[in-house]
Structures are given as structure tokens and as C-alpha cells.
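Re-run with default settings, no changes from the original entry. Doing this only to confirm the output is reproducible before filing.
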Amino acid sequence: MPSKQQKTLMNYIAGEFVQSNSSFENINPVDGVLVNYVAEADVGIVNNAVLAAKEALTGEWSKMGLEQRSSLLHAVADGIEDRFDDFVAAEIADTGKSYYQVNNIDIPRGAANFRVFADLIKTRPAPCFEMDTPDGCGALNYAVNKPVGVVAIVSPWNLPLLLMTWKVAPALAAGNTVVVKPSEETPSTATLLAEVMDEVGIPKGVFNLVHGFGPKSAGEFLVSHDHIDCITFTGESSTGTAIMKSAAEGVKPVSFELGGKNAAIIFEDANFDEAVAGTVRSVFSNCGQVCLCSERVYVERPIFDKFVTALKVEAEKIKVGRPDDGSDMGPLVSRKHRDKVLAYFALAVKEGANVITGGDIPHFGDERDNGAFVNPTIWTGLSEDARCVKEEIFGPVCHISPFDTEEEVVSKANDTVYGLAAALWTSDLKRAHRVARQMEVGICWVNDWFLRDLRTPFGGVKLSGIGREGGIHSLDFYSEPLNICIKL
């Protein structure tokens, strides 16, 4: 077990790693063992980070050309890949997720995010208009994109490196400086990224990192700071609401990707095996801890029983355990989060659910019993107004309901305060286009799930968020267009 003398993760401010007066424990959710200690940023440290970012706006970074800035971001991507094994180990220690996911999704996407925006910024267009004037000489109007300023980035614990770099990369590409506050549950890869930034020569103050919690800690100190110019956040809807209230005082732009209670719709004409396999992924990936996961599954009645049976068989094949023992699914991120999920498991039974499989904790007879594991869970039989059908659970669980008509299932799928994602499974091309357009979500997959083109808009509606990320949409959020009018 690591000792306090072995490793304490530091804050990173103005190119220096900074200790603090207090620290907190980072616990491995696989077995409850201490991973490391984390230096908790107080209000003074957060203030220093924001002021360092503000000062860097007028220094070397602001004078750097697009080619040089792009090259530095490519160097960051290279730096992540050079230390790939370190990032993998850190991500797994914090989250307990499988080697397959970390090796093939989380860390590669972290590097890819920097490459995508490093290239995109060099080809970004800006409008230019000629106009007539009364004297006949005319005028020329053109726009230049300027950085917004100091960006506060508050990132989540479910896909720590992937979702943090999804914000850091476009913010830096657009010429901003950033202060990042990662989740207190997953501080390790953020600290490694700070080391990479330092190693490749990102100018001091451009990237800053503060560790801590939300209310009355680093998160609140950061988003309420007077010198923060915009805020981007991924996480729970309630936290987004609190941040938005804070941002309103300074009329600061916000970009939020929040919760979801996503629907998967399986029509009778779907390729059955593909729909089952896709739904297994969309329900149980990352132990259900993906904002895009399907917690509500609607199946056309003629294939309902067959589908429930098939999904049960596949769910019970999922091997739950350590990331290094060939497991398919690891633990939830913490015992605290497991308590929340288990409370929903108990509530579902009280609400009348049929537990098709799961709904309990696996018992290993070893140190894993100190971890945060739950079994893959499937319910049927709940009403549409049951809390377990309405509220986001964020665990490896779904409720399956039958439907009879297209109109009925569209209405049920949209009957939620959330609106992040949907997945449709059908062989009817006309139906695919017709139903997808009716989904009140930010992204709708047809015959797939989690397939992402990083150039396309990503985000939610209703309580699932505000704004869009991805490609030019991210660059637009992190930029202020300045119109210049030249009288000819």
C-alpha cells in the first residue's frame, strides 16, 4: 500500500507543482486500498492558479502563431502516448475499470483529442462580407476569433482523461488559458497530464491544475472566481444548476454536459443479435457509468420475451472483477456511489420490479469484498412513473418495457426531464430517419451506440445540458468573434 511519503499528487500552478496544507485520500474501488494522497487546493491556491492563467494570456502564449500552438498540442498527444503505460495504470487505479476500456478507449481518446483540435484550429474559417455604402466606395467586414480568456474546466470521474482533454484541447487550441479541477475521485491522470504539459514546454500558467472537492472547496472557489471568463462542466445536473447560478452573477458563458436517462428502442424488424449485443454495451459499459448509457430499454412486444431472455443470458456472462484478471466489468467508482446504486436496487423492488438478474453485490471471499462492486442488473414490470424509470441511477442496470406502436414508444422515450442520447435498432431505413428526428436528445444512434465522430456536435437538451462540444462547436464556445469593419 502506498505510504504518504511515497506519493502525494500536487496542484500545478504557473509551471510549478504545489503542495497544500491539507490532503485527502484517493482510494482504489477494487479493494479499498489507498492509492495515494492528494493535495487539496485552498482558496489561496485556486486564486493563484486563476491569476497565473490570467497573466499567461498576455505573455508568450498570446504571441504564439497557430502553427507553433498546434505543434505544442501535438507534442502533448505524443507525450501521453510516450507515457501510455503510466496513464493506463493511473486510470485503472482510480477507477478499477477494465484494461480493455482504458487501453482502447480512455487513453487513446485523450491523445486523439489534442490531435483533432490541433489540426482543426489551422483550418477554421471566419466570415468576410463586402457591403455597399452611400458614397459608392464600399466597406469590408471580417471576423477574427479571439480567445475568451481564462477557462474553468470541471471534469468528471467516469471517463477522467477522455472528458478532461475533450475540454482542455479545444480551449488551448483557441488560445485560452485553463484551470482544471478534476473529480476528487480520479485525480491521477490529470496530474500526469500536468507533468506532460510541463515536459513538452507549454508556457507557464497556460495549463493549471487544482485538486479538491465541490462545495466550499476547489470547485466552488474556481467557478465563482471573478477572473474566470467562462466555465465548462461535465457531471450531475444538480451541480450544473449550482454552477450556472454562480456564473449568472458575472454573466459568464457556460457549457454543460449533464445527466441522462437514455432510451434504447428495439423494433421487431431489427437485427436481433446485433440489437442484443449493442444493448449489452449501452447498458453495462464502464459498469453503467457513462452518461450515454441506456437505462430504459423499450422492445416491440412480439420480441419482448425473447429479448429479455437473451439480454439476461448475456448479462450473466459478464465477468465482474479486477481489471488484471480478464474481467469484463470492474467496480463502481466508490463505495459511496455504490450505496446510491444499491438504494435504487432496493427501491426498484419496493416499486414492484421483476428482478430478471442481478440487483445485488458479488461476493469474492477476498480483498475485493472491500471494493465497490455490484452485479449487472435487469428489471421489468415497473410503471413509467416509477422513480427507478425516471431518475438517473448511473450503474449497470436497465429496465425493459414492451411497446406496441411507434407513436407510443416515441412518447415514452421522450417523457423524461433529460435529453442526452437515444439508440434505435431497426432495419427499416424510413423508420430510422423518421423516429430519430423525433427524439428529444442531443445524439441519436441507429443500429449502434457510442460511435463518435469528434467533428460533430455533442451535448444534451433539457436537464442534460446546455451548449455543444465537438469540432467547430467547441472552438466557437472557447472563442469570441470580433467583427472588423474597414471603410474602403
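The chain has 16 helices and 21 strands. Residues 99-120 form the longest helix (22 residues).
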